[in-house]
Amino acid sequence: MMAEAATLTLPTRRDEAWRYADMDAVARLGVTALDQWQTINVAAGESVTRCMIVGSDAPEVHRMRVTLGEGASAAFFVTNAGGDYTRVEIEVRLAKGAHFEFGGVTIGGAGVTREFVTQVVHAEPEATSNQTVRAVHWGGATGNFLGEIKVARHAQKTDAAQDFKGLLLEARASANAVPQLEIFADDVKCAHGATVGALDEAARFYMMARGLDPATAQRLLVQAFIGDAFVALTDEASREKLLDAALGALERARL
Amino acid sequence: MLEITNLHASVGDKPILKGLTLSIPAGEIHAIMGPNGAGKSTLAHVLGGKPGYEVTAGSVTFRGQDLLALEPHERAAAGLFLGFQYPVEIPGVSNVQFLREALNAQRKSRGEEPLSGGEFLKLAKEKAALLKMDMEMLKRQVNVGFSGGEKKRAEMVQMGILDPAFAVLDETDSGLDIDALRIVGAGINAIMRSPDKAVLLITHYQRLLDVVAPDKVSILAGGRIVETGGPELALRLEAEGYDAVMA
């Protein structure tokens, strides 16, 4: 497992979970910084919700190990708008009937790599997980979502879904989605989808024809696009904060 | 109000409009009819400023301004409304949010105060009622899941809210059943029939013109206006067809 490897040496591009990482930034962070794992245990029947806005002018790696007891649920919502390499990594283990919800947005330009890496282990039956990631990039930047789902042999009735959409506002930006499914049970539902595209020019012209300037039309379209990642977040104030942080990055870029 | 002079426009390398001249004064509803491929939609798109349409010669003056020098949103703020033949779906954006932002953007560029949420909803409700559209539909995403007829009615609600001086309506009657056609026609009359407004109404059929009586009718063929007359011209077209009338 990559966790053990990281305690010894820096990861390399050959490690699947670091394939699209900015290795120069990883080297600048160093082994010690990489080996900081936050442990979150959610007891049977309990639930937690975490909202995070990550990113600064320096590289950041946020690594979390989450264990969900029977019927427990955890929801993570993250806006990743770092000004340098910013990685959010979550490993989750689900007991029977547990639920894991993840909504993530990577947004930004300036040639920076921003990524989400998740490993969701359905260790017992009847657990569910739902991951929605949206990536909006420009200026030669990259957004990645590496999502691994493992379903144990006896984890029947698992329902795991993963959805990634990338929106590239300029030609030189890129987005990578790497879904990895390892399923050993036979009665499971695992869905994953990934698409990458440009801004809908027809929608943009339609909005401009109604009087919206190009920047406002773009903001509304981006807002609608990334909104999917946070629909499962019921607390409106938190949702606004996550959206504002993402749209703020777009606004500052003045494309 | 709108002066189009010797307009030439191409899509890609293909010339579509080839010297189109048309003048529409305030107070006039001017219907444009013409065979498929004549350039009717191209004319609407060029007036709206759609990317991909290149004006190679000629001029368009709108209320004394060079329309072609303006960006699409500036044209809207100047009082131009383009009714789309195929209104665009915008997932994740509600009609209410979209139209309030659009209206306030237009007001701002005209130096007017923005409408508050309450004021806007009151206005939207009034215009929706005019088109017999449920307010609940306006809370939904822009055109998403709307039937063809609902999209066209929503276009007219938008027109009512934005209250333009000039409307270019591109086949607003297509996709409408008989009842919806009457509602949309009545909406056009209520919103645009005024001495200080004007309409360029692109249509294939007389049936819309039975409701929205045009002051003038022009035939667009081969990228030019080939004939202009009164409402009787549309009736002749309906009875005899383009070939006979243009011969």
Account of the protein in words:
Chain A has helices at residues 2-8, 23-34, 201-209, 214-227, 236-253; strands at 37-42, 47-54, 60-68, 73-80, 86-94, 99-108, 113-122, 128-137, 142-151, 159-168, 174-183, 189-198. With 255 residues, chain A is an alpha/beta fold. The longest helix of chain A has 18 residues, at 236-253. Chain B has 247 residues and is α/β, with parallel strands linked by helices. In chain B, the strands form three sheets. In chain B, strands 6-9-10-3-11-12 form a six-stranded mixed β-sheet, with helices on both faces. Chain B has a four-stranded antiparallel β-sheet with strand order 2-1-4-5. A two-stranded antiparallel ribbon of chain B has the order 7-8. In chain B, strand 4 and strand 5 form a beta hairpin. The longest helix of chain B is centred in the middle third of the chain and has 15 residues, at 95-109. Chain B is globular. Classes of the chains: A alpha/beta (255), B alpha/beta (247). Chains A and B meet through helix 3 and helix 4 of A and helix 2, strand 7 and helix 3 of B.
How is the biggest beta sheet of chain B arranged? 6 strands, mixed
Strand content of chain A: 35-45%
> Counting H and I runs of at least 4 residues, what is the number of helices of chain B?
10
* Widest sheet, order of strands of chain A: 1-3-5-7-9-11
Proportion of β residues of chain B?
Answer: 25-35%
The gyration radius over C-alpha positions of chain B equals 18 Å
Low-confidence stretches of chain A are none
- The counted number of beta strands of chain B is 12
Oligomer: heterodimer
Secondary-structure element series of chain A? HHEEEEEEEEEEEEHHH
Pattern of helices and strands of chain B? EEEHEEHEEHHHEHEHEHEEHH
Identify the strand order in the major beta sheet of chain B: 6-9-10-3-11-12
Biggest sheet overview of chain A:
6 strands, parallel
In whole angstroms, the N-to-C terminal distance of chain B is 31 Å
Stretches with pLDDT under 50, minimum 5 residues of chain B: none
Radius of gyration of chain A: 18 Å
State the total count of DSSP E strands of chain A.
Answer: 12
**Shape verdict of chain A:** globular
- Integer average pLDDT of chain B: 94
